[in-house]
């Protein structure tokens, strides 16, 4: 290459200059070619191996290393007996050492299986503590770092708990902020058969503002005991416990929890259970997996003191293979929740014996909830084993102001004779639905009952078969006896019963003389209720009608 007379650059010189140019620029700017350092940790880090943990899965009492308790306590001041495990002493000692340093830190759990025989207690933090002495426990991976409690510590005890979670739970003002990540906890009795007797001890006992990230908890009475507010579980696995996550008694919790991509399936009683004194509110469950247990979400027996489920969001969650139902709380309230894109099914393999499948959702009060997308499908009559449902898909003492979008399959349960959509013993009003071809409202049936395809009229807060000289209010999409709940189409296109005469598509349809609950295309004294959307031959019993009730 030539750049004018007397100026020639060879290929080797050009390549050398190109390779040296980035280094020259870096040097000029005073920068290193090495990657930037990792962000600082939360205080110092301390490996439990440095505190004497072994992690081979076998029992190693302190007596293997120390000849006397005094000698052991010079290294582990917190121990009380030479029978205690070295792994427990190391982990609890690391937590205490960092918490007493005044700036918190991270306890590292290298790969291994660590045998423990006591509770791991995290430091108690005060809301107004300027030092904010947080201690985290971080492993090398959910399948790499395993903390094991082969011996049951008994009721009221936990594998890991906060300092404010005392046995008597008399400190309800404790404030905690900590993180547990990338490890698993195994309890004394893993299992997933309904009816198995649970162990006494629990897994992790939270207070406020905890973060559990990629943590596995299995083999305990309760995987995670949720107390107070603002905790998050991300990509966790709570399975083979008696209860996956438990909202226990004794707290003034106000909710605001986040469960993201968390697996709570495969527990012997429920994925989630709630004590009567507690409730789940203003929390979000995103892409979570419930089921493979008798219940997905269960309200424990007893007079409730708070709303069972209120103002929660369930997005893209699966209530899969539940034995006895999805959401169960016959004495509880379900208020203001939104279920978007959820789905579920029933499976007898996970059913508790001698407990009926009353319904998929059974609560005392069902008010202002919204079911959108997959949650409103409620199965297709095959994969959800709807024939096993004894009462209805949704059972409540009162149902007010609920919205069922994409309710086609919910209505189909009744059309196919499998189970009614709703069973409501008390007030039932303003429960709107949207199906593929029509919209309307679930309404209670008055005297005489109704049949699918009947034109119906309002009877105060109920509906009944249309009578002469009364305005039609809609079309019953299923049959129901007096006191039952029927979906009534009020707009769109729906099948309606007709007289035996033929009907041509486009004909105006009127209530038939003598049979006002059916339609006829013969002009008569009654105002039209719709237009025939299809042809219907003579002798057929129904015709698709485009409802025009507003013109009556």
UniProtKB/TrEMBL annotation:
InterPro entries: Pectin_lyas_fold, Pectin_lyase_fold/virulence. Keywords: Signal. It comes from the Bacteria. Residues 28-60 are annotated as: Disordered. Residues 1-27 form the signal peptide. This is Pectate lyase superfamily protein domain-containing protein. The keyword Signal applies. Residues 48-60 have a biased composition (Basic and acidic residues). The keyword rRNA processing does not apply.
